[in-house]
Design a protein that fits this description.
There is one protein chain. By secondary structure, this protein is mainly alpha-helical. It has one domain: Na+/H+ antiporter like fold (Up-down Bundle). The mean pLDDT is about 85. Pfam families: Sbt_1.
């Protein structure tokens, strides 16, 4: 299967088309709207489902297969926020607060992009490691903390402890970690008991969720003029750099073609659930137009449409075209 065919499969997948439909609905000012309560329910469902499946897979995975990918993920959680911060400060001339706020988003991970990557691998009939959801939890938190530490060291003030508490108590980390623990303790047999709810309907729920995200992303498009050309370029180039780094480290850690690709996609993604909540508390003076528009309005659609096939092509190339 060549790269163009993979791109076609990705662009014509129900999830991506639902995202595009959400954008169109907003641009034509449709009265389409997903109730806030349903949007919250869908996000809870997706995060808990990921955690359950990851924990169940981890329960049957030998430690010897996990520790190297986990170490590679920890390395990414340190490198990516530092790299983003340095680029934003030196090349983008952003101030400390906004550079740290954006770096927190690009060091962390988008759970929905992760889901889209694993769904793409299923469509490409490429197996991935079952413990990947555990790596999402590993990558989610440290990168945000590091970025906020950078800002605190430069500025002082702000409640880092409160921001860290917000990260761990936030629904994304709580559901991912909690679901992983539940899945690990109950194992595959426990997952089988709830498969009718948390496994089989997963892709359909994802389509609904991306429909809403498309509408949210379209609302950020009007902010592109205010964020400037540099941030638009940053939102496309930085994912390519961090995604390539993630694929490379995943390959070095012994991950499969699909697993290394998903890890690369995680590194390339930008958080828009946990990171905004933490930044809002620790760096209230940061401009949301910068970090939300970059992560949700630029990087997310780029990864969803073009980034994922590119990271897969890189992973196949690093694995010798397998």
């Amino acid at each position: 299967m060549d790269t163009l065919e993979l791109l076609r499969i990705n662009l014509l997948s129900p999830a991506v088309l639902a995202f595009a439909l959400g954008i169109v609905a907003t641009l034509v000012k449709s009265d389409l709207k997903i109730p806030d309560a349903l949007y919250t329910t869908l996000s809870i469902y997706l995060l808990l489902s990921i955690g359950l499946k990851g924990g169940a897979a981890l329960a049957t995975t030998p430690f010897v297969e996990v520790w190297k990918p986990a170490l590679a993920t920890l390395a990414l959680s340190v490198i990516t926020p530092l790299l983003s911060y340095a680029v934003l400060r030196r090349l983008g001339r952003f101030d400390v607060v906004n550079a740290a706020a954006i770096a927190a988003h690009y060091g962390s991970v988008s759970a929905v992009t992760f889901i889209a990557a694993t769904t793409f691998m299923q469509a490409a009939k490429q197996p991935v490691e079952g413990f990947l959801p555990t790596l999402v939890a590993i990558l989610e938190v440290p990168a945000i903390v590091i970025a906020l530490l950078i800002a605190r060291r430069s500025l002082g003030g702000g409640s880092l402890a409160e921001a860290v508490r917000e990260i761990f108590a936030g629904k994304s980390v709580l559901l991912l970690v909690g679901g992983s623990v539940m899945g690990f303790l109950t194992g595959p047999e426990g997952l089988k008991q709830v498969a009718a709810v948390f496994v089989d309907p997963f892709r359909g729920v994802l389509v609904l969720f991306l429909l809403e995200l498309g509408m949210i992303a379209a609302k950020r498009l009007r902010d592109l003029r205010s964020v400037g050309g540099f941030l638009v370029g940053f939102g496309i180039v930085m994912p390519l750099i961090q995604g390539s780094l993630g694929v490379w480290l995943g390959s070095l850690a012994g991950m499969s073609v699909g697993g290394a690709m998903v890890l690369g996609t995680m590194a390339a993604s930008a958080s828009y659930i946990a990171a905004p909540a933490a930044v809002r508390i620790a760096l209230p003076q940061a401009n949301p137009s910068y970090y939300l528009t970059a992560s949700l309005g630029i990087t997310f659609p780029f990864n969803l449409t073009l980034g994922i096939p590119i990271y897969y092509a890189i992973s196949r190339w690093l694995h010798g075209g397998s």
